[in-house]
């Protein structure tokens, strides 16, 4: 799908090299906000195995991963995933995201995440998309505010990020069109 600032498509089993390249290019940019990764975590063979696992999860309806592609090129410049998709009475998932440092502050992430939230509500028919961020991640806070997410609280020592248990702000957007 072409939306001007960025092309959007699902991640596929052939994207190992492109995703390895995205994460290795952005190691320093992402480190502060992500779990510590082992040396091999972003190598192409490990990505190829991870993409096979993602494919299985997708077929089981448990997760879906979108890529933002530089228009006219094959380079991944942003990622946005819906994980922990739960059905039954919850009908909810978590959203995670990141943009290439060179495309930060240009609306690329908002465009991709906006598309993904619409997919969660209109295609997956979920009731709730949750996204959580560290209190000092002001760019993440602004992104979610711009996407009409609502802060629901804070959680102490919520995730092990860059080697430390970090408090997180919990936010969510509800599907107001859903019955
Ligand atoms: C958090 C993160 C994804 C936010 O990305 P971002 O690029 O700031 O988000 P947006 O796409 O909404 O861009 C917003 C900026 O683009 C500008 N912009 C330019 N053109 C725009 C357009 N057409 N539409 C919307 N915004 C546009 C906005 O004015 C805003 O600029 P500002 O930051 O100077 O106010 C990014 O900082 C990141 O990848 N951080 C590292 C990983 C991370 O923290 N992940 C999330 C963990 S919870």
Summed up:
By secondary structure, the chain is an alpha+beta fold. It is built from 5 helices and 7 strands. Strands 1-2-3-4-5-7-6 form a 7-stranded mixed beta sheet, sandwiched between helices.
Structure overview:
By secondary structure, the protein is of the alpha+beta class. It has a domain at 7-131: 3-Layer(aba) Sandwich (Aminopeptidase). Helices cover 31% and strands 32% of the residues. It has helices spanning 16-25, 27-31, 44-59, 108-122, 138-146; strands at 7-10, 64-69, 76-86, 92-99, 128-133, 150-161, 164-174. A hairpin with a 2-residue loop joins strand 6 and strand 7 (164-174). Helix 1 packs across helix 3. It is globular and about 40 Å long. The protein starts with 6 loop residues before the first strand and ends in a 5-residue tail after the last strand. The model has no long low-confidence stretch (mean pLDDT 96). Bound molecules: coenzyme A (COA). Residues 29-30, 33, 97-99, 104-110, 133, 137, 139-140, 143, 146 line the site of coenzyme A (COA).
User: Cofactors and ligands present?
Assistant: coenzyme A
- List segments where confidence is low: pLDDT < 50 over at least 5 consecutive residues: none
The helix/strand order is EHHHEEEHEHEE
CATH superfamily of the domain at 7-131: Gcn5-related N-acetyltransferase (GNAT)
- With helices defined by DSSP (H or I, 4 residues minimum), what is the helix count? 5
> What does the average pLDDT come to?
96
Give the spatial strand order of the biggest sheet.
Answer: 1-2-3-4-5-7-6
The main sheet comes to: 7 strands, mixed
User: Would you state the CATH class of the domain at 7-131?
Assistant: Alpha Beta
Helix percentage: 25-40%
Structural class: alpha+beta
* C-alpha-based Rg, rounded: 16 Å
Distance between the termini: 28 Å
